[in-house]
Amino acid sequence: MTAATEPVLNEIIHAPNRLRICAFLGTVDRAEFSAIREMLGVADSVTSKQLKVLEDAGYVKLSKPTGKGRVKTWAALTPAGRGAYKVHVAALKALIAG
Amino acid sequence: MENQSGNEAREALSAIGDARAAAAERLVAPWWYYPVLGLLAAGAVLMASLGNVFVFLGTLWVFTVGLGVLMGLHRERTGLWIPAFRSGRASRWAWLLLAAYAVCVPAAIITGRLASTEWAAWLAAVVLFAATAVAGSRFNEALQTQLRGAP
């Protein structure tokens, strides 16, 4: 593999909380805001901020399905987000492999 | 970022593992989830085989609504959603269960109508209840193992 095709770390995903959000969402189809917040163990505002960064990058899609009861926010990785996350994980593994 | 050490990369992969484990922990279905789904399926195949067309349609409606309520409860309880047929290697249990439904339901209905016997319907109901409970439990286990594995 040449240097040009080696996976590179993604600066948006690399931040610890955003990396954990991508890893969490990478395992499921979508996750509710409170499940993400509890997984991170941080405040609502921190969770919102990190999700907004990922949404602005086109890596996460946020939705608020209407229905009975309180409206909840659900987050899902976009195809671009899944791809970027996979490349980032590959880059981390390449770093360890040296 | 170019200077990131192997240790930092290991820490990042460890954080990924923690996040995946957290998802696995939340996704565990309650013990009653698959037995209730099995009861719905067993009831549906019994009514579809033994009743008239109106009973069949009513049963179909009850099964569909019951399935929707079960899935909705699970989604609300866990805050996560993962489609059974798009769950990686664990999906094979969902496909296997679908195959059991595809064989048992028509076989019970056709046998019941043509031979006017009830035993096929009762046999299909027992098989579907057991298959749903077992395949559901195996699906749960496979999904847990998969999520806790390497990213």
TrEMBL record, chain A:
It comes from the Bacteria. Gene3D superfamilies: Winged helix-like DNA-binding domain superfamily/Winged helix DNA-binding domain. InterPro entries: WH-like_DNA-bd_sf (IPR036388), WH_DNA-bd_dom (IPR027395), WH_DNA-bd_sf (IPR036390). Residues 18-96 form the Winged helix DNA-binding domain. This is MarR family transcriptional regulator. It comes from Arthrobacter livingstonensis.
UniProtKB/TrEMBL annotation, chain B:
The chain crosses the membrane at residues 31-48, 54-73, 93-113, 119-139. Keywords: Membrane, Transmembrane, Transmembrane helix. This is Uncharacterized protein. It comes from Arthrobacter livingstonensis.
